Amino acid sequence: MTEPLRTGATIGILGGGQLGRMLSVAASRLGFKTCVFEPGSDCPASHVANFHLKADYDDHAALERFARSVDVITYEFENIPTAALDVLEAITPIHPNRRALATSQDRLTEKEFLIGLGLSVAPFADVTDADSLRAALNSIGTPSILKTRRMGYDGKGQARIKSPDDADAALAAMNGAPAVLEGFVDFQREVSVIAARAQDGSVACYDPGENVHRDGILHTTTVPASLSPSQRTDAVLIAARVLNALDYVGVLGVELFVTRNALIVNEIAPRVHNSGHWTQNGCAIDQFEQHIRAVAGWPLGDGSRHSNVTMENLTGDDMDRVPQIAKTDASLHLYGKAEVKPGRKMGHVNTVTGAAT
Amino acid sequence: MTEPLRTGATIGILGGGQLGRMLSVAASRLGFKTCVFEPGSDCPASHVANFHLKADYDDHAALERFARSVDVITYEFENIPTAALDVLEAITPIHPNRRALATSQDRLTEKEFLIGLGLSVAPFADVTDADSLRAALNSIGTPSILKTRRMGYDGKGQARIKSPDDADAALAAMNGAPAVLEGFVDFQREVSVIAARAQDGSVACYDPGENVHRDGILHTTTVPASLSPSQRTDAVLIAARVLNALDYVGVLGVELFVTRNALIVNEIAPRVHNSGHWTQNGCAIDQFEQHIRAVAGWPLGDGSRHSNVTMENLTGDDMDRVPQIAKTDASLHLYGKAEVKPGRKMGHVNTVTGAAT
């Protein structure tokens, strides 16, 4: 446990996308400066960060400069090269810790970790070649889904297998990368819990949100989720168990499939999460400030929900709807991305639907 | 009426203090970049703005560069030199407009403007020398207060006159600047209305807040204010009358003295206002975003109040209380100022005291 950061300290953020942008804004509320490390120019976070260090993750001199210029390091994405982390961590503390990153960077490691905690996951099997895929399909069956162990997000690095005939194409889609075959879960709904853990070990979980995806990308999150009181409690306890097991500091996203009998962990993300954006308009302290508080060694803030909210992602041409949305009572959050591409997350809109129920 | 600014456009902000900082953050929510013009280094707004143009207000080449690099210009303080405004306005539109600035930069002009609208102000008289001060004291009496016509804020440029014996000292305190003698108003409370007007002329007023000052500096603002329904309506109508008369675009602060029989306008500020900081935790769209929406030619957002809030300014050594405040359910907003000075505004804290009543 280090001393809490004082106002005026600088928080280093790896990654300059919208999550880094909103983390920077939250850090500013607490009087912190931010320095963003991001190879891309004109990235969303650079618009609001005090510094943008534009360099590649294999530029170790730049990484050293970055680490020396900040008081603590955090990140907005989990796929940070291990060698870069080695350079950074030798100089400045990183939160959440390396174990959280190592666990969530690899689907196989993550599933084995979750099982070790006594949590439920979808049936899965390690796949390295045609033989192991065949064996996996024999045990798990179809429909199922083949996913690269590493570097997948927003539906990328995934191939659905409807029948054994799809096996070869699915394996080819992995481009030789180690993979995991996952059985489909017949779920009623998907929810996620955004949870935070401070350096003193205290935990605060936001109310679970209910997610709807479209084309593999999160489309809406709605709070409250349709859960029974016991499901709600269980969801929060699962998140807390993961946080404590990892000796985690910061905000973590846990995606859960809700079936008739169980809550099955789909995946964990060691960072602020798209399904927690509703907290910006539903809570006094949103997930971004909660994360900054944790990594800065501060106490967690008030994450209780004061409103019912629906968050909708704005991707690609959804930006054409912004002038109409601006006329409503909804709250827009745009990321300042210059280029609109199909499926690209351009912003989100939070609609408060009433006082919390 | 110009076209609404598109996401990715740049808003120029004159002044780099905490108001510019919070305006920059609000602009980022709507996908805008900001460029801050401010002579000081490491100013609060520079931490979150995309660009900081560090130059003096008499550097006309820098002003031109600034005006050419932004799509619209706004400001966080009213005491901008006229020559600078001439340079800027020849290149890029400024909101709120020059008339709003000219009116509020000069206490005498402002009072005459308000009287012209049929609004009540405290008794006042123009003071240029010892003779005019003597005449003014004869008509207004004591206690009264002598204020410089221009450049006063947070109690600066003011001298109280308890008896005619204080006249010479008060006049000397003006340093030869033109002044106004104001009679004391025996008020029950001071409230302020934060009001916004869009480019299409639509007006939205926040609920009035009740202000308590300490040593001439705002200490707390509480919503709801203790006002009768008719006082509440009158306060909002006064603000709307001022906005419309000035063909105003942006957010305006109107300070009112509440007496037994009247609402007396103390002063107007053509900008976001300290007494409107509670909106950050009391409304979906806060005063900063409302101002950005207006100057960007967007529709105004939802400024209805969802919570009761008390805002407390943190000045000087109040910063020592931050670790304690961080443990509570309150929302901190710190300005990242490196140097703590007595009376210097370092941040504020919003405490939600319940759902709106």
UniProtKB/TrEMBL annotation, chains A, B:
EC class:
ligase
**Superkingdom, natural source:** Bacteria
Q: Does the keyword Transcription apply?
A: no
Q: The ATP-grasp domain covers which part of the protein? A: 111-296
Gene Ontology MF annotations: 5-(carboxyamino)imidazole ribonucleotide synthase activity
> EC annotation?
6.3.4.18
The reaction(s) annotated as catalysed by this protein in its Swiss-Prot or TrEMBL entry are:
5-amino-1-(5-phospho-beta-D-ribosyl)imidazole + hydrogencarbonate + ATP = 5-carboxyamino-1-(5-phospho-D-ribosyl)imidazole + ADP + phosphate + 2 H(+)
Q: What are the UniProt keywords, alphabetically?
A: ATP-binding, Ligase, Nucleotide-binding, Purine biosynthesis
| Quaternary structure and partners | Homodimer.
User: Member of which family?
Assistant: Belongs to the PurK/PurT family.
Functional description taken from the UniProt entry? Catalyzes the ATP-dependent conversion of 5-aminoimidazole ribonucleotide (AIR) and HCO(3)- to N5-carboxyaminoimidazole ribonucleotide (N5-CAIR). Catalyzes the ATP-dependent conversion of 5-aminoimidazole ribonucleotide (AIR) and HCO(3)(-) to N5-carboxyaminoimidazole ribonucleotide (N5-CAIR).
* Name of this chain's protein: N5-carboxyaminoimidazole ribonucleotide synthase
Gene source species = Loktanella gaetbuli
Encoded by which gene?
purK
